[in-house]
Design a protein that fits this description.
Structural class: alpha/beta
Number of domains: 1
CATH topology: TIM Barrel
Helix content: 25-40%
Radius of gyration: 20 Å
Number of strands: 10
Strand order of the largest sheet: 1-2-5-6-7-8-9-10
CATH architecture: Alpha-Beta Barrel
Distance between the termini: 22 Å
Order of helices and strands: HEHEEEHEHEHEHEHEHHHEH
């Protein structure tokens, strides 16, 4: 079922969803199931599965020679989605990126997931990999998520890259995109960021999931700005509880997200990571309850491969 249909069927009740990472190469699917199982009691209508593109390393061969090696630490997005739908009978949503994909790769990826009965997809540009200073698209790939959305929309119309194909079967994907209540790190301003979000919507995106935030007022303000610009699709808030002290520096640096001073002070006072974990849970519970009271149809949690603190939050909210 499409995400938009899940929202329509909720009848005003806030739903619980979450996002998982594929396991590191060498682990089996049970490492995923072990983290999903404790969360199924909260009846998620869908589960997102991230996509991780290849990275490159260089191996020294001697005599000043280097061999370029492709490293894929978290493969398996499509297989995990198929396994989730088979085991749990809920919709799985694969992420698809511009980075690392040609347009032909994208089309083949979409054909594969269509054959698997997957009818939602999250279309993202993706970040630069470690060997890039700035994001670099593949040759004959997409530079922006708005272009990726267009290709998916075209496939939904039965328009494939090979113009000679006739009587092509259209796909039926519900397209989600990302957004940033505190603006994307590369955007010159929040207004310009919303301008490009609107372009993704105009090109066919049907719902939005936000980057994590820790101040609900930033989300509410962002939604208000989007509505004033004519963006009417659902804007689903993304939430993540802080779990360790390192997150105080990692989250602002890696995700370009501000942490409220009150949250920072509470974490600084903690003596152990268990204390910090509890502060993170309590803060996220308070965020969740306020968002729920505002009538938000879905709360989406970034589990980052661990479900214990997400379960603790959901147990108090749903």
């Amino acid at each position: 079922m499409k995400v938009t249909k899940h929202i329509e069927n909720s009848n005003g009740k806030t739903q619980f969803t979450f996002e998982i990472l594929p396991p590191l190469k060498g682990q089996n699917i049970n490492s995923i199931f072990d983290n999903i199982d404790p969360l199924m009691e909260f009846n998620p209508p869908f589960i997102d599965v991230t996509y991780h593109r290849e990275e490159y390393t260089y191996k020294h061969l001697g005599n000043d020679l280097l061999k370029k090696q492709v490293v894929r630490k978290r493969p398996g997005t499509v297989g995990i989605c198929a396994a989730i739908q088979n085991k749990y009978k809920v919709d799985a949503i694969p992420h698809i990126l511009c980075g690392g994909f040609t347009k032909e790769d994208t089309e083949n990826f979409l054909i594969d997931i269509d054959f698997l009965g997957i009818h939602n997809v999250m279309a993202l540009r993706g970040d630069a990999i470690k060997s890039e200073t700035y994001f670099e698209p593949e040759k004959d790939g997409h530079s922006y998520a708005s272009e990726l959305v267009t290709q998916i929309t075209e496939l939904n119309k039965g328009i494939y890259l090979d113009e000679e194909l006739q009587n092509c079967a259209p796909t039926n994907f519900c397209i989600g995109v990302g957004a940033y209540p505190e603006k994307h790190m590369e955007a010159p301003s929040l207004d310009s960021d919303i301008h490009y979000l609107k372009k993704k919507i105009n090109n066919g995106a049907e719902y939005v999931v936000t980057q994590m935030f820790f101040d609900n007022q930033k989300y509410f303000s962002f939604v208000e700005k989007c509505r004033s610009e004519g963006i009417t699709v659902p804007i689903i808030p993304g939430l993540k509880p802080i779990a360790i002290k390192k997150h105080l520096n990692l989250i602002p640096h890696r995700f370009h997200v501000d942490l409220p001073e009150a949250l920072i002070l509470e974490i600084i006072k903690c003596k152990t990571n268990e204390d910090i974990r509890q502060v993170g849970i309590e803060w996220c519970v308070a965020q969740s309850k306020e968002l729920m009271e505002a009538g938000i149809p879905i709360l989406h949690y970034y589990s980052m491969g661990k479900s214990d603190n997400i379960k603790a939050i959901a147990s108090q909210v749903f």
